[in-house]
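#struct-pred

JT: dropping the chains for the assembly here, can someone run the whole complex?
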Amino acid sequence: MKNRTIAGSIGSEIRRRILDGRYPAGSQLRQDGLATEFGASRIPVREALFQLEAEGLVRIHPHRGATVAPLSPADAAEALELRGTLEPRLLSLSAPRLTAEDFARADALLEDYAAALRDGATARWGALNTDLHLLLYGQAERPRALALVGSLLAECDRYTRLQLSTDNAELERADREHREIVRLCRNGHVSAACALLTDHIDHVAAALMAFLGETSGLTKSAGIV
Amino acid sequence: MKNRTIAGSIGSEIRRRILDGRYPAGSQLRQDGLATEFGASRIPVREALFQLEAEGLVRIHPHRGATVAPLSPADAAEALELRGTLEPRLLSLSAPRLTAEDFARADALLEDYAAALRDGATARWGALNTDLHLLLYGQAERPRALALVGSLLAECDRYTRLQLSTDNAELERADREHREIVRLCRNGHVSAACALLTDHIDHVAAALMAFLGETSGLTKSAGIV
DNA sequence: GCCCGCTGGATTTTATACAATTTCAACACC
DNA sequence: GGTGTTGAAATTGTATAAAATCCAGCGGGC
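RK: done, full complex below.
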């Protein structure tokens, strides 16, 4: 997964650190510091920041520097609302065309997911969740929507990571629902799978909103590692 | 609308030229040429290209240069499908909250639109259409979806511009539908406005698909000025 | 005849150096 | 005491130049 260009690899690393929380929401990203940290010049760093801004993870204020995109309940709600609109539609298109190989990969991802769950490796959870969702929509032949959903999943992971630091039960529920969705798709019950997917996203949204609501100081909790 | 940074203004200019068709789909965008053309260095050009890639107007192949994103019927269909999914939802949220000032601006845009129609100034059409649509969704409080729809509208303009070079009747129909949508919103008939908007987008999609289908060689017609 | 590796040229990518802009704190002034 | 201004420091934005990469064409080998 290594990028052929330094800017690309720096961008991947910064993205990972933002999703990790190592670069907290709202924090300044100084080009010079990042450049020396990665042992490169500032220009690849600049390009990486531009790319990340396009993904919505970074905000660039002209002549005032780059900051990690802030977290807000409204933004999380909108991201999940868009996911709820787009993902079931993609699944309904993709599910009938999923191949045996796709299901094999889905099973592997579910296994990794369960292993990460046992090990308490919440760090791996986000990527696995994204991979599984995108895999299920891969046969929809909607590349633009797929890329968009990928970006939305990445951003939702930022919020979910906050939530997971206090509540692990959601992960097991997500695991059960993922397995059931895959099972329904495999057996050809497309509409049932889509309905469950809708419930899945709605529930994630509701749980996340409840979490964000009770921890009223979002900016404070955004600093969690 | 002038950007504070050279990269921003260069990006705006390149975007305009891509939408104009002055940079045809698939054509190479050489950094050196653009830099000398704009009287700047290559670095602002690079940053502008990165930003445009994020908008989907440019594709960057590492170490192989940047090309204008190709036009394909499948891509147009997906863009319009997404618009058909997102825009009615946005309108239903925004329409009840539109202010008198919003309607005044909408009327002004409709006037400009009609003037451009009389003058045969198809060049201005795209921006006016985008402005009107975005204005109608402005009160939805969905910034992410709004930005996404703006990007989709820009891309749809690339296709519509091809179509308009041979068929002007669609513009008048669009004008009538726009006026009716605004009238319905103003009178509080939100669901009717949303239904009409859905039809509006569906019809644009159908007309565009028919046009793209009959001019089988899309790559050829993509070279139209 | 066909495939493979190599070299020349062009283009992108990155590094270094410089200029423009913003920010913040000290300070005079109202 | 509050407010506007002004300077320097820090940071970003841009230009110039060097390094890495890729592609096309060509010659040699099988």
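JT: nice. The interface with chain B takes residues 3-5, 8, 43, 46-47, 50-51, 53-56, 62-63, 74-75, 78-79, 81-82, 85-86, 89, 141-145, 148 of chain A (CB under 8 Å). Residues 181 and 193 of chain A are 5 Å apart (CA to CA).
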